Amino acid sequence: MTHDYYEIEILLPKPPSLNTFYAGKHWTIRKRKKAEYNASIEEALSSFDKWTMESFALDVRYNCNYDVDNSIICAKFVSDYLTSNGYVRKDTPTYFTSQRTSFDSSLQKNTFCAKIICRNLTFL
After folding, report:
1. Rounded to whole angstroms, how far apart are CA atoms 69 and 29?
2. C-beta contacts of 21-29 below 8 A and 24+ residues apart
3. What is the three-state SS of the chain?
4. Positive or negative: CA dihedral 86, 88, 93, 94
5. Domain, as residue range, for 72
6. Does the pTM exceed 0.85?
7. Per-residue confidence in pLDDT tens, the chain, 124 aa
């Protein structure tokens, strides 16, 4: 069954800040940090049946001391994970249609909440 519109919300830990992630770190360190965060995404998605979707948007809310622009890495990691693991074909504008990141003090400290807004989602 295909759903025209479906939202999936996952709670994630605090990722590295964008500045920290790219500030002169060797690519092997960045690869390890991304793999660690991908494990958190995988665990958060494990409670859902596997699905595919035609396109998606992300709405990320967070509560930590990062500036909004340094929090964008959560959206980057989630979109890359969805692409790499077959949830969506690519993360180009045709498939990844919009992204929003905002601070939310109502979340537990150092928590990120990623809402995946799916278009034409099919559970497998």
Report:
1. 21
2. 21/73
3. CEEEEEEEEEEEECCCCHHHHHCCCCHHHHHHHHHHHHHHHHHHHCCCCCEEEEEEEEEEEEECCCCHHHHCHHHHHHHHHHHHCCCCCCCCCCCEEEEEEEECCCCCCCEEEEEEEEEEEEEC
4. positive
5. 2-123
6. yes
7. 899 999 999 999 999 998 888 886 788 988 999 999 999 999 999 999 999 999 999 999 999 999 999 999 999 999 999 999 999 999 999 999 999 999 999 999 999 999 999 999 999 9
Q: Is 88 within 8 Å of 55 (Cβ atoms)?
A: yes
The answer to whether residues 84 and 45 touch, using CB atoms and an 8 Å cutoff, is no
User: CA nearest 12: which of 121, 107, 120?
Assistant: 107
CATH number (domain holding residue 49): 3.30.1330.70
Q: Number of structural domains, the chain?
A: 1
pLDDT digits (tens, 9 = 90+) for 25-35: 788 988 999 99
